[in-house]
Amino acid sequence: MAKIGKANVHVLTVDDNSPDGTGAIADQLAATDPGVHVLHRSGKLGLGTAYKAGFRFGLENGYQYICTMDADFSHNPDALPQLLEKAGSGYDLVVGSRYVPGGSVVGWPASRKVISYSANWLAHKALGVTTKDCTAGYRCYRRQVLESVDLDHIFSNGYSFLIEMAFLCQRAGYRIGEVPITFVNRTEGASKINRSEIYRAFYTLVRLRTSALPWDRIVQVYRRRRTIPSKEQN
Fold first, then answer.
1. Using alpha carbons only, what angle is made at residue 224 by residues 219 and 225, rounded to the nearest 5 degrees?
2. Of 161, 139, 143, which Cα lies nearest the Cα of 152?
3. What is the pLDDT of residue 43?
4. Shortest CA distance to 1 belongs to which of 77, 58, 66?
5. Is the pTM above the cut of 0.90?
6. pLDDT tens-digit series, residues 129-154
7. Are residues 39 and 68 in the same domain?
8. Do 5 and 68 reside in the same domain of the chain?
9. Using one digit for the tens of pLDDT, what is the confidence trace for 155-205?
10. Percentage of the chain surpassing pLDDT 90?
11. Potential cystine with 96: which of 47, 101, 122, 181 (Cβ 3.0-4.6 Å)?
12. Max CA separation in the chain (angstroms)
């Protein structure tokens, strides 16, 4: 925040009861800095719901630009002024991109690169998303964008949430820009990407590609059927 040089830039940490003590450290910072806020949640509720909680906090408190980034410094805060500057020049969504000229990835294994490239390629081909890095979490949204998107209607809850948001913003006609960033793989902890996350991403692509199908009803039926056995046991 000091580097940005703007008094009205604040930080919100969404903590899902992280076992590494992230929430406690954030609380200590918030106790001494009125520009730091912490939202505690009871457990791991999913990346998508964390984004939604952050969006709602920003909207309810009157922020004009709402940025998202990883808290493990894979996203370098030094790039934040570039995102804000581009958003201020008339873009509704600005993405910190690994896949535009000047962008790069450091420290990823080959398997992770394949997953990321494949997800973006499929989003481009299946959905027509033109954003080069539509799975990037380093973003800056103009508040009008988030006010117009029905967040409660978004099914995606993992990294596929990012694909869906890029798709919805493009479909709504918002102006999307990208700035190059260097993404540095985390040196502590483990990535949240797993087989289940990959399946959910494919499901999201199919659902958005075939949006004419009654997906709301299909998901409701699926969830009801999953609860029937437990009710019978009781």
1. 100
2. 161
3. 81
4. 77
5. no
6. 999 999 999 999 999 999 999 998 88
7. no
8. no
9. 787 788 999 999 999 999 999 999 999 999 976 655 556 667 777 777 788
10. 59
11. 181
12. 60
Structure token digits, residue 229: 């056995």
Two structure tokens written together for 41: 């949640």
Our CA angle for 103, 178, 44, nearest 5°, is: 85
DSSP code of residue 83: H
Total structural domains within the chain: 2
Hunting for tokens 């918002």 — which residue is that? 174
103 shares a domain with 40? no
| Sole residue written with tokens 């580097």 | 3
**Tokens (6 digits) for 113:** 């690169």
Alpha-carbon distance 85 to 43, whole Å?
A: 35
Are residues 70 and 116 part of one domain?
Answer: yes
Q: Are 137 and 156 in contact (CB under 8 A)?
A: no
Burial track 177-212 (b if 16+ CB lie within 10 A, e otherwise)? bbbbbbbbeeeeeeeebeeebbebbeebbebbbeee
